Amino acid sequence: MAAAQAVPSSRRRFRSMEFVIGLLFAGTMTLAVLFSGFLFPDGGESMDLMARLVPPFTDPAHILGTDPLGRDVLARVVVGGRISLMVGVLSVLGAVVVGTLVGLVAGYYRGVAEVFLMRFADVQLALPFILLAIMFLAILGTGIDKIIFFMIVAQWVQYARLVRGSVLALRDREFILSARAIGVGNGRIIFHHILPNVLGPIVILMTLNVATNILLESSLTFLGLGVDPLIPSWGGMLADGRTYLQSAWWVSVFPGLAIMVTVLGLNLLGDWLRDLLDPLGQTNK
Amino acid sequence: MSDGPISTSPYLPQKGAGALLSVRGLSVEFGTQNGPFKAVKDVSFDVEPGKTLAIVGESGSGKSVTSLAIMRLTDYTGGRIVGGEILFRPAAGEAIDLARASDDRLRQIRGKDIAMIFQEPMTSLNPVFTIGNQIAETLMLHEGLGARQALSRARDLLQKVRLPDAERLLERYPHQLSGGMRQRVMIAMALACRPKLLIADEPTTALDVTIQAQILNIVRDLQSEMGTSVIFITHDMGVVAEMADDVVVMWKGEKVEQAPVREIFAAPKHPYTRALLSAVPRLGSLTGQSLPKRTPVTVIENGEPKLVGETREQDTARYDKPLLQVENLTTRFDVGKTFFGRVTHRVHAVEEVSFDIYPGETLALVGESGSGKSTIGRTLQQLVEPTGGTVRFAGRDMAAMSSSDRRKLRQEIQYIFQDPFASLDPRHTVGYSIAEPIVVHDLIQGRASIDRRVHELLEQVGLKPEHAKRYPHEFSGGQRQRVCIARALASDPKLIIADESVSALDVSIQAQIVNLLMELQEKRHLSYLFITHDMAVVEKISHRVAVMYLGQIVEIGTRQAVFENPQHSYTRKLLSAVPIADPQRERAKTRIDGEIPSPVRAVGQEPAIHRMREVEPGHWVAIESEPLQGAA
């Protein structure tokens, strides 16, 4: 066991498979999406009705083929990532911040705060998601900011429940008691001792939820509650390509692959991050 | 698998001939990230029929792995037997090599021919089945009994381990029993099929001393009645002296010495055995002396024993003005509540307790689990709100203090917990943890000065400054407790509450930590409230002793008075239950029975408060209206 400490953790830190592959996948997708305006100035919207449903790898102008309206699939995949990544990442970050704070407060202070917050969370979990979405977006109207806001509202509960559970298990641990015995105040206990110890599960749930939210956006768009259907997004392209799956698989497979690669990359980075945050990380695999 | 060190080990055919179990050149490996780790290296020993073999060693010595390997349970914990043989002679049939036996054959042997008891009786019993069902299951499986027959046998077994009211006990669930009762149930289960060999892995370590004495008694009686051989795994030399016929001493995975028990204690040969024995605190070693005494500890350095430390009387206490005065302290917890939130039952953890601690003095608070000793510590540290009574620190009443003064009190009183690993945040370096009290109380400003102070503290407790960057899991148990002590010292306290702080440590480490605490007391003029159940350690470290029973102090006085002239029947019972590390000594014939009653009471049924009388100056004893159950 002593030999494990021989390798300085700083070097081991960036050598893991998870980090390298995760960064490669998620990084490539993010870079492509960030520079999409430069790569495809037309935004993937120029139609060429003469070149409809061109199969991939046949026409150098359309490497990944074209869709039923003759739009370049590659361009749309790259441009579509803008909406998808923004929705996926921002909604998750928002939900994490809100949910974690609520969970920490409820779990640490217990009492009325816990009862109120957790019952509220239960009520919200009991409402069907689609019903909530229709109600919410009918009132607010549609648009990417509203979608992100709605997803935060719909999902913070998951984090609050997760964090509260972990805090309940942690708050009676002896190192928390010993911090209190030293005279450490509540705020410092919550943010210096409890929060670092609940980050592991949060990170895992986060990476899973990015994928779910990318797909959720497409469901909402499909229902007409999401973004303008003309703006390309991965979820939207998947939904559009569905009808052509028998004849032109590439219309939906490539956006699907884009989602897969991004999510896989993020999950690997999440695993890596969890281990990095945990000084014991190397042992519990 | 077969080309292990078996060829290199001395093979002793004659000696193993009559043995029930004969272990030859056993080696066990565990796969780790850094390649295989040899937990047991080339260990050989025999267990004679009807005898008790004790395997002694400290944590990491491989003693438990050896016992698991005999049952081949290492297969389930990631271990692999890489060499040697384990010859066992079952009741029927030929001797077999358990190291190579098939899984089916092993299943027949486990529980029937060889049984095992573990340290933690709660986790070894299944919480969702009744006691009766669990014992009957073993009997139905191995003996082929019917359900009714098995249950009546189970009842007989429970009577054998002296559990009262066996009939009703069969219907109970594990959580409804106390730790001692559960361990007795475990013994009943282990002995259900009259095994030839019983392996007991630290069976009494988690139990109170009086309960431990009961369990040891039961094991000894049943052994002579049934002729079972026993392998007793323990770290406690006192238990060894009381139980064993032969002793195997293990160190770092190797057997370093084997001898009959009297020889081991009288003339230990290996340096490690000598170091181990020198570290064992012996009850009665300070008889006739009024002050606690620091004595050197033998430690092994580069394979050679070396004496570390000095002999010095702990003349540190100043009896002019008390540092801490506790008067009629009462702490109760509400438990049972009705649907409408009305309290029905309370735990009477501490009832009207009064004592003083003087500067430079160590007051030991002794008692068994549930006696309320830890609650007193926690109440003083403001981790628990008292129900009544007054606490004065340096003359000031705690209840009348402002909240900032109360915060200040948390700087002047520090608390060291039992389990150093649990009490350090695993996500922070130990340097961070040690610096925390300094930062929180704003004692030193500036990163560099704080770092310098942390390094100083680490050196004071015998660690190195570079250790500050490490995480708790990178330390050994003893080092972690040193870190906790450094953390407690960081805020420059006047009083340290040590709550079973050395109980979980190996004896040699324990002796060093006790010496460290005494040294720090002298250098920094600290007062200690030393909470423990271990009478031998108490004798070594404390100036005065308070014995607690069911939330009240039943005897308080100087260490010499309480140990040499115990007045209360419970104090005597406690002292007589301590296993003595001396096999020459006559084994106590007195049987200790009974359990400590529960401190949970219905509302309105307050316990009677003992009145105290002074038997000699400063030595107070509770007046007993009726003698305690089973008192010596």
Characterization of this structure:
The complex is a heterodimer of chains A (285) and B (632). Chain A is 71% helix and 0% strand. Chain A has helices at residues 9-13, 17-34, 36-39, 73-109, 111-126, 129-140, 144-171, 174-182, 186-222, 234-241, 250-277. In chain A, helix 4 (73-109) runs antiparallel to helix 5 (111-126), helix 4 (73-109) runs parallel beside helix 7 (144-171) and helix 5 packs across helix 7 (144-171). The relative contact order of chain A is 0.15. In chain B, a hairpin with a 2-residue loop joins strand 9 and strand 10 (254-260). Chain B is globular, with a radius of gyration of 26 Å. Chain B has a domain at 120-192. Chain B has 632 residues and is an alpha/beta fold. Chain A binds chain B through residues 1, 3-5, 173-175, 177-185, 188, 192-193, 196-197, 277-280, 282-283, and chain B through 32-34, 37, 381, 383, 407, 410-411, 414-415, 417, 419, 422-428, 436-437, 440-441, 470-471, 473-474, 484, 487, 491.
What percent of residues of chain A are in strands? under 5%
Instruction: State the CATH topology of chain A.
Output: MetI-like fold
**Main beta sheet of chain A, described?**
none
Major beta sheet, strand line-up of chain B? 20-21-22-17-23-24-27-26
The CATH superfamily name of chain A is: MetI-like
Low-confidence runs of chain B: 1-16
What's the CATH C level of chain A? Mainly Alpha
Give me the Rg of chain A, rounded.
22 Å
Helical content band of chain A: over 70%
In whole angstroms, how far apart are the ends of chain A?
15 Å
Averaged pLDDT of chain B, please?
86
Largest interface here, residues on each chain?
A-B, 27 and 31 residues
The largest sheet of chain B is: 8 strands, mixed
Helix fraction of chain B?
A: 25-40%
Computed structural class of chain B: alpha/beta
User: Ranges of chain A with pLDDT <50 over ≥5 residues?
Assistant: 1-8
Distance between the termini of chain B: 55 Å
The CATH architecture designation of chain A is Orthogonal Bundle
Strand coverage percent of chain B: 25-35%
